[in-house]
Design brief:
Number of helices: 10
Order of helices and strands: HHHEHHEEHEEEHHHEEEH
Strand order of the largest sheet: 6-5-4-9-8-7
Helix content: 40-55%
Structural class: alpha+beta
Low-confidence stretches: 1-29, 291-295
CATH class of the largest domain: Alpha Beta
CATH superfamily of the largest domain: GAF domain
Number of strands: 9
Length: 295
């Protein structure tokens, strides 16, 4: 569970992943200076030091000066500067000339671990029960590079002209799961997403401007779920709810999709929302109990 909880924090906020360098459950030494006498010949110390630089940022210290990074990691100022500039060249760090901070690109570091094993294994039985109960297609996705990525899915019928399988990606701004995941981002991470996003309409209902999307995400935060009505495809409605880790961070989203001929917006709320929220709670409970296998 230690590894899982650390990784899932990566998926929704750049700074939350490295919160492990602070205290409590996620305690993780940040210093890059170690006794190398017990290291194998394969050990790459520069990699260790680069990771230490990333880990020194956190919720309490989202912005650090060069001197502060050097102090936190035990590196010299010259070494810390080289690592920071290299991370900046790679897109993982930004600087305003004095302060350094992480970018949303650090989300990539945990995506493969999360999507390839733990969350899908926990979610699939719940999706099967949910789909059987509501007779609609159900999915779980995570956020990666501004897109929702399907990591688990149970299809009740073919409701979309585009085939959806595990690994399918859609722009987050046009989907119910995307709205839930974006609503769970920190303000800084959301700003990064919006700055990097080009809005393309899929239908005449697609949200295509930053102001409208921010308003919608605020509504999703308040109500705890999202309903998207034909923004991705004509005739398709979907409703999504967040999946949170034990600390309350949104790590994934679960949704139910239905054709407009079968479910009105009112029916989505009255008939689909209650079992959807129950499924999300059950998935969260399994994650909290440590019901995932580590490989």
């Amino acid at each position: 569970m230690f590894v899982f909880r650390t990784i899932v924090l990566i998926m929704n906020t750049a700074t939350a992943w490295v919160n492990g360098g602070r205290s409590g459950l996620y305690a993780w030494p940040v210093t890059a200076t170690h006794d190398d006498s017990d290291r194998g010949a394969h050990f790459v110390q520069s990699l260790e030091r680069g990771l230490a630089v990333i880990r020194c940022f956190g919720a309490e210290h989202p912005r650090l000066t060069l001197s502060e990074v050097a102090h936190e990691t035990g590196l010299t100022r010259a070494a810390a500067r080289r690592f920071l500039l290299t991370l900046a060249d790679l897109g993982y760090v930004r600087s305003d000339g004095r302060y350094f901070s992480l970018t949303a690109r650090v989300l990539e570091l945990g995506f493969s671990y999360l999507s390839s094993l733990t969350l899908p294994e926990v979610a699939n039985p719940h999706l099967e029960r949910l789909s059987a109960a509501v007779h609609e297609s159900c999915s779980v996705s995570v956020l990666d590079a501004g897109e929702v990525v399907y990591v688990a899915r149970v299809a009740a019928s073919r409701i979309m002209t585009v085939s959806i399988n595990v690994g399918t990606r859609f722009p987050a701004y046009a989907t119910s799961m995307g709205h839930v995941l974006l609503a769970g981002l920190t303000p800084e991470a959301l700003d990064d997403y919006l700055a990097a996003t080009t809005f393309t309409p899929f239908t005449d209902r697609t949200i295509t401007d930053e102001y409208s999307l921010r308003q919608e995400l605020e509504r999703v935060r308040r109500q705890g779920f999202s309903i998207v009505d034909q923004e991705l495809e004509e005739g398709l409605r979907s409703i999504a709810a967040p999946i949170r880790d034990p600390g309350g961070t949104v790590i994934a989203a679960v949704n139910i999709s239905a054709h407009t001929s079968r479910r009105t917006i009112s029916a989505m709320r009255s008939e689909l929302l209650p079992p959807l929220l129950t499924a999300a709670e059950n998935i969260q409970a399994d994650l909290a109990r440590g019901g995932v296998r580590a490989r």
